[in-house]
Amino acid sequence: MGAQLRVYKRRIKSVTATKKITRAMEMIAASRIIKAQRRVAASEPYATELTRAVTAVAGGSATSHPLLTEAEQPKRAAVLLITSDRGLAGGYNSNAIKAAEQLNERLTAEGKEIVSFIVGSKGVAYYGFRDRPVKESFTGFTDNPTYADAKTVAASLIEAVQQETAEGGVDELHIVYTEFVSMMTQTPVRDRMLPLTLDGDQATEAAGGKGVLPLYDFEPSAEDVLDALLPRYVESRVYNALLQAAASKHAATRRAMKSATDNAEELIKSLTRLANAARQADITQEISEIVGGASALADANAGSDR
Amino acid sequence: MAELHVELVAADRKVWSGEASLVVARTSSGDIGVMPGHQPLLGVLESGPVTIRTSGESGSGTVVAAVHGGFISFADDQLSLLAEVAELTDEIDVERAERALEEAKSEADEGAERRADVRLRAVTAAR
């Protein structure tokens, strides 16, 4: 076998092995998307009911709560960035980080100091490499977040919000995560969680399309209900964001691995062509060597006969 | 007879939904019973059993759930019970809860003791 041919054969073999791996990863991710999607759907009733309750209290009572009112001069803003622990997901992490960067720039331009909270080791690594301060980071559960994980993340956020601004507390709470729109589309979103903004659409939607929210009787009191509701609201928002991010990550992995598999196939095809050409060149050369050798022999024999 | 529609949802799933004629839950200011036509209400729930007297399509009977903190909201004959953790009594493993209660008591783990206690109370209420 020619040296050239051997090199091609070896490369085909290694690309085939890679293709097998990427194909397997694609299928694993595909099966996980379904599971993650189901969990997003399962968490929805709680989130909608909770949003409705929060809207009812915030809109239906004349209470002013520190978590609902805008600070006159917001000095600090917390940004929770949700990335994944592992890569191989195409532009998933860099898109989320880019969205957070844009948000940070905007907030800095508004004169607010950024306090970063990060979920996922990819985001932690990005900030660590650039020596940026991170208030707190959470890793180890991005593939399969549970409500308890969301609670730990939310707890430190709430703590930061409840601190006095002078003592390092934050006035605003933003969240950056990747929304799972469909199998093919996942978009990074930037949301402001607190202070709560209740635009008309949301309120109407929460009231079940009936337009006006009923006048609630609060038990024990509007303030107490709100005090209890808002942390739960933050938790549920964080939980939902984590679940969506997980589903998006799996979808992104699936897509990245699918194109990797396709590329491997393409590569194998062109390498096979090259290997075939090399093999034929080898054969042609061998034949011409044989023919050349035979005719040289024939010439020599013809000379000795004489 | 008027009915109210009940949705009992936990953070990660819908636990129970259906029609009911009476729901009894414990709020921070005492037990409260909600019947159809009650005035709109939003309250904070204490950990404890919630009793739902079912009616209509779900048949008449009683559903008891152990609810670990949460909220009750009622408007337009729609009642929602929101809880971080909620379990129906048939989902509760009594032996395990009893064991957990013993363990929690010996280790003085208040949170775990409360959780186990709520579960056992709910099971007792269902009987």
Automatic annotation (TrEMBL), chain A:
Protein name per Swiss-Prot or TrEMBL: ATP synthase gamma chain
Role noted for this protein: Produces ATP from ADP in the presence of a proton gradient across the membrane. The gamma chain is believed to be important in regulating ATPase activity and the flow of protons through the CF(0) complex.
GO molecular function: ATP binding; proton-transporting ATP synthase activity, rotational mechanism
Gene: atpG
Transport found in the keyword field: yes
Domain of life where this protein originates: Bacteria
PANTHER family attached to this UniProt entry: ATP SYNTHASE GAMMA CHAIN, ATP SYNTHASE SUBUNIT GAMMA, MITOCHONDRIAL
Record SUPFAM superfamilies: ATP synthase (F1-ATPase), gamma subunit (SSF52943)
A single Gene Ontology CC term: plasma membrane
Annotated InterPro entries: ATP_synth_F1_ATPase_gsu (IPR035968), ATP_synth_F1_gsu (IPR000131), ATP_synth_F1_gsu_CS (IPR023632)
Pfam hit, one: ATP-synt
GO BP annotations, alphabetical order: proton motive force-driven plasma membrane ATP synthesis
UniProt-annotated location(s): Cell membrane; Membrane
Similarity section: Belongs to the ATPase gamma chain family.
Keyword check for Lyase: no
Summary of subunit composition and partner proteins: F-type ATPases have 2 components, CF(1) - the catalytic core - and CF(0) - the membrane proton channel. CF(1) has five subunits: alpha(3), beta(3), gamma(1), delta(1), epsilon(1). CF(0) has three main subunits: a, b and c.
PROSITE patterns per UniProt: ATPASE_GAMMA
This protein's UniProt keywords: ATP synthesis, Cell membrane, CF(1), Hydrogen ion transport, Ion transport, Membrane, Transport
Topological relation to the membrane, as annotated: Peripheral membrane protein
Coiled coil: none
TrEMBL record, chain B:
SUPFAM superfamilies, A to Z: Epsilon subunit of F1F0-ATP synthase N-terminal domain
Compartment(s) where it occurs, according to its Swiss-Prot or TrEMBL record: Cell membrane
GO molecular function: ATP binding; proton-transporting ATP synthase activity, rotational mechanism
Coiled-coil regions, chain positions: 85-121
Keywords: ATP synthesis, Cell membrane, CF(1), Coiled coil, Hydrogen ion transport, Ion transport, Membrane, Transport
Domain ATP synthase F1 complex delta/epsilon subunit N-terminal: 4-86
Pfam families given in the database record: ATP-synt_DE_N
UniProt cross-references to InterPro entries, sorted A to Z: ATP_synth_F1_dsu/esu (IPR001469), ATP_synth_F1_dsu/esu_N (IPR020546), ATPsynth_dsu/esu_N (IPR036771)
Predominant place of localization: membrane
Membrane topology: Peripheral membrane protein
UniProt GO cellular component terms: plasma membrane; proton-transporting ATP synthase complex
Assembly and interaction partners: F-type ATPases have 2 components, CF(1) - the catalytic core - and CF(0) - the membrane proton channel. CF(1) has five subunits: alpha(3), beta(3), gamma(1), delta(1), epsilon(1). CF(0) has three main subunits: a, b and c.
Family recorded in the similarity comment: Belongs to the ATPase epsilon chain family.
Free-text function comment from the UniProt entry: Produces ATP from ADP in the presence of a proton gradient across the membrane.
UniProt-recorded name of the protein: ATP synthase epsilon chain
Organism lineage string: Bacteria, Bacillati, Actinomycetota, Actinomycetes, Kitasatosporales
Gene that produces this protein: atpC
